[in-house]
């Protein structure tokens, strides 16, 4: 006859009372120290004794209980989805998370793939975050913003190519990237310009505005722009390069450095000389682009903010209810190298 395995004995969870007893202080003092409450004056030796007792016992404050006492959480929700992992965005989100942590916020990433815009907003609201930072490539509607604010979110911030009604908008206008690339090509006498349109999920919020910026700039100069669908695969690049003579293009803005390197190799394999026959420019200013032969021209992107985003979010949380703030963050400049 089979027997059920023995269940492990219940683990005793340390409490703030245990920490207080070991440190020889009150539970209130434990709460003040471990929640970094600066309004109550507590000596440094006492603070050190409380922290050492908590470390010895393995005590961790209960975030949900703390939120109930305060009336709101310290959670900043960062939804995730099909977000292109460019160096600028990676640096931006690393700085954001470390800055929020220094301000005693907890950053929680939430997978939102497969949810509609309003379904995602409802799911985020269930966690009762104090703020939500919606990255580029993830949809948010005015209705979704209302759901979040009614659930207690004091700040809803979008980081996309355009603002959303009711939300703070820190705009990264991707049209500037396409415009800078085409301005650079026009200055070198190119008039028939291809613009690579990646076929991978999540690129459309970036690629379409870049195409719009490229088109507007080209039309002003009487130049031609031709969209070029391309998958991030060698076969797709070689198929496009094989059609190059019939396309009649003397330049290409390849969306970013990765697609530029992929296409440039395929063009060279097809006998198209770079830059003599076709100038090539990417975007992101990646290190590997500088190591190619010819070295890759690119569009450098930088963020221009009067203060770190974490401090901006903290100010919005501390002073909710003001009119939505819209600020353009993106600065672009073309970097001329051998490929153009």
- Strand and helix order: HHHHEHEHEHEEHEHEHHEHEHEHEE
β content, as a range?
15-25%
Helicity level, as a percent range?
40-55%
**What is the count of β-strands?**
12
Number of helices: 14
Q: Mean pLDDT, as a whole number?
A: 87
First-last Cα distance: 79 Å
| Order of strands in the sheet with most strands | 2-1-3-4-5-11
What best-fitting shape do the alpha-carbon axes yield? elongated
Q: Describe the biggest sheet? A: 6 strands, parallel
Q: From the helix content, strand content and strand pairing, which structural class follows?
A: alpha/beta
Radius of gyration: 26 Å
Taking pLDDT < 50 over at least 5 consecutive residues as the criterion, the unreliable ranges are: none
Quick take:
By secondary structure, the chain is of the alpha/beta class. The chain has 14 helices and 12 strands.
Per-chain topology:
Blueprint: H1 16-23, H2 27-34, H3 44-57, H4 63-70, E1 75-80, H5 87-102, E2 106-111, H6 117-126, E3 131-134, H7 142-150, E4 155-158, E5 168-171, H8 175-187, E6 192-198, H9 204-220, E7 224-230, H10 234-242, H11 244-247, E8 251-253, H12 257-269, E9 279-281, H13 287-291, E10 298-303, H14 309-318, E11 326-328, E12 330-335
Parallel strand pairs: 1-2, 1-3, 3-4, 4-5, 5-11, 6-7, 6-8, 8-9
Antiparallel strand pairs: 10-12
Describe, in plain words, how this protein is organized in 3D.
The protein has 340 residues and is an alpha/beta fold. 42% of the residues lie in helices and 17% in strands. It contains 14 helices and 12 strands. α6 runs parallel beside α7. The model has no long low-confidence stretch (mean pLDDT 87).
């Amino acid at each position: 006859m089979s027997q059920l395995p023995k269940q492990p004995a219940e683990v005793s969870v340390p409490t703030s009372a245990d920490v207080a007893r070991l440190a020889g202080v009150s539970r209130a003092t434990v709460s003040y120290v471990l929640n970094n409450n600066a309004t109550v004056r507590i000596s440094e030796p006492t603070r050190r004794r409380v922290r050492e007792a908590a470390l010895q016992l393995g005590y961790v404050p209960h975030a949900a209980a703390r939120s109930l006492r305060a009336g709101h959480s310290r959670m900043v929700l960062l939804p995730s989805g099909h977000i292109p992992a460019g160096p600028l965005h990676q640096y931006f989100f690393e700085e954001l998370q470390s800055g929020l942590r220094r301000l005693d916020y907890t950053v929680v990433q939430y997978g939102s793939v497969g949810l509609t815009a309003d379904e995602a907003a409802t799911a985020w609201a269930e966690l009762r975050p104090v703020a939500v930072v919606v990255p580029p490539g993830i949809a948010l509607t005015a209705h979704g913003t209302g759901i979040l604010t009614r659930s207690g979110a004091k700040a809803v911030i979008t980081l996309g190519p355009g603002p959303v009604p009711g939300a703070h908008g820190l705009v990264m206008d991707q049209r500037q990237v396409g415009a800078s690339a085409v301005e650079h090509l026009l200055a070198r006498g190119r008039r028939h310009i291809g613009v690579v349109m990646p076929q991978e999920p999540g690129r459309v919020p970036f690629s379409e505005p870049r195409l719009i910026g490229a088109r507007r700039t080209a039309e002003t100069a009487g130049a031609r722009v031709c969209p070029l669908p391309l998958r991030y695969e060698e076969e797709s690049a070689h198929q496009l390069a094989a059609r190059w003579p019939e396309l009649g293009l003397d330049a290409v803005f390849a969306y970013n450095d990765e697609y530029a390197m992929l296409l440039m190799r395929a063009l060279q394999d097809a006998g198209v000389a770079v830059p003599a026959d076709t100038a090539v420019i990417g975007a992101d200013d990646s290190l590997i682009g500088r190591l190619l032969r010819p070295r890759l021209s690119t569009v450098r992107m930088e963020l221009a903010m009067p203060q770190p985003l974490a401090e901006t979010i903290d100010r919005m949380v501390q002073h909710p209810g003001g009119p939505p703030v819209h600020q353009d963050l993106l600065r672009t400049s073309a970097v001329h190298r051998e490929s153009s």
